[in-house]
Design goal:
mainly alpha; single chain; MetI-like fold; 11 helices
Length: about 270
Amino acid sequence: MKISLGKWLLPLYTVLALTFLMVPIVYTFVFSFNDSLKSNITWRGFTFDKWLNVCAVQNGAVCEAFANSIIIGVVATIVATALGTMIAIAIAIVRYRFKFRSQTSLFLFLPMATPEVVLGAGLAAQFLSIGVPKDMLTIILAHIMFCISFVVVTVKARVSSLDPALEEAGRDLYGSPTQVFMRITFPLLLPGILAAALLSFALSFDDFIITNFNSGAVTTFPKYIYVSAARGIPAEANVIASAVFIFALVIVVTTQVSQAARAKRLAKQA
């Protein structure tokens, strides 16, 4: 019997790739139940204490770092999403021609192409030269700056897919510019805006290099993980990381199930 190499090569590659990606996640989840002391490198026994006392007094630093990352991520996401959406719509880089249009697009995409170490060092030097102390504010400003580009790209893709005839129909029905935007344009752009906001928050929450250059004494969750990695990431950090992963997984599964149920209802109505 002949065995087709191509028939088995792709499934084998897929299984190996998924295994390679899932091993760190499984390790993080398993070692969140480790009965560790100062080090969390070796397995010492199973316990629920780390989950039940993740923010105990002696381990409060990890929760403080996590809270800092949440605050920074939320504020940076709100500001970057608002500014990036306005840039993609109000400046109208997609639909309309204006002077320096290509230069504006280039400047917006530069932060995406610039290495983070260069961007972080440049921002740190700029804050130092104007005498701004490094704290949570400088982290938020840095995150807003590099998140705006990703928001603009995401919303721009959504704007370019809109049919201008829909807005023209709204104006033909004597809708004011505000009414046309709120009742037609904004609802159509909302999925792209939400996607941009989620991407912005993920980038902000996960960033280490730019944060490390501009954080000063403020500790974020990625920074805490980096400092702790030398002696084994504390089980409490694994607990928070596992909880974030489970929460994100629940959101994705819930969204997919709701979309499938909605598509099924629409198919029945049709």
